[in-house]
UniProtKB/TrEMBL annotation:
Top-level EC class as recorded in UniProt: hydrolase
Catalytic reactions on record: Hydrolyzes the link between N-acetylmuramoyl residues and L-amino acid residues in certain cell-wall glycopeptides
Matches recorded under InterPro entries: MurNAc-LAA_cat, N-acetylmuramoyl_amidase_3
UniProt keyword Chaperone, yes or no: no
Superkingdom to which the source organism belongs: Bacteria
Protein name in UniProt: N-acetylmuramoyl-L-alanine amidase
Organism of provenance: Flavobacterium artemisiae
Keywords: Hydrolase
One Pfam family, short name: Amidase_3
Gene3D superfamilies xrefs: Zn-dependent exopeptidases (3.40.630.40)
Domain MurNAc-LAA: 87-201
Length: 201
């Protein structure tokens, strides 16, 4: 009997040790900060889209407290990446989804709000992308700081060529004073990052 108890105890320790070192597959979500390097993106009064998109991407990663979700930043640092390089990296990592971050400008200074794009050319993941897009736009607009525009179709390279659900988020307009003040503020960027994280759960 004592030997049986010893054997069971040893097996228990081994099993516990095995489970303790077994890794659980995490959800991988890629955040693509638009532009970078010599590609400034939208620019007004010295304010550059590439800086805003990277700042919010970094905040999304920092704010993530979900141990089962890994946030991977496609662009860390201010450097240029070709669209083909971005897409190739995404597909090699095989994430659950990708969110591309941008801000816009418009010759009409009254144009404002948040808009999200998907591509119908990515037929395999189009419906899932639409669902994600609707969730993201609802969450960001729920703060009342950015007007809700709509989910639109667009043939953007990354949206067409990624092998997973993919959306592109236009987080306001630099050409609109209210939007610009919000998306360049620390509190505004943190709030947008929080809402994007919430929508990805």
């Amino acid at each position: 009997m004592k030997n049986q108890i010893k054997i069971l105890a040893i097996l228990g320790v081994l099993l516990f040790g095995f489970l303790g070192f077994t890794t659980i597959d995490k959800r991988v979500i890629i955040i693509d900060a638009g532009h970078g390097g010599h590609d400034y993106g939208a620019t007004i009064n010295g304010i550059q889209e590439k800086i805003i998109s990277e700042s919010i991407a970094q905040k999304i990663k920092t704010l993530n407290k979900d141990s089962n979700t890994e946030i991977v930043l496609l662009r860390e640092g201010d450097h240029f990446m070709e669209l083909s390089e971005r897409t190739s990296t995404i597909n090699n990592l095989k994430p659950e989804l990708v969110v591309s971050l941008h801000v816009g400008t418009n010759s009409n200074a009254t144009a404002n709000g948040v808009e999200v794009y998907v591509s119908s050319k990515n037929k395999t993941f189009n419906e899932r992308s639409k669902m994600l897009a609707e969730n993201v736009i609802e969450k960001i607009a729920s703060t009342g700081n950015l007007t809700k525009r709509k989910v639109s179709e667009a043939p953007f390279y990354i949206l067409k060529n990624t092998e997973c659900p993919a959306i592109l988020v236009e987080m306001g307009y630099l050409s609109n004073e209210k939007d610009r003040n919000y998306i360049t503020s620390e509190s505004g960027q943190t709030e947008i990052a929080e809402k994007i994280l919430e929508s990805l759960k």
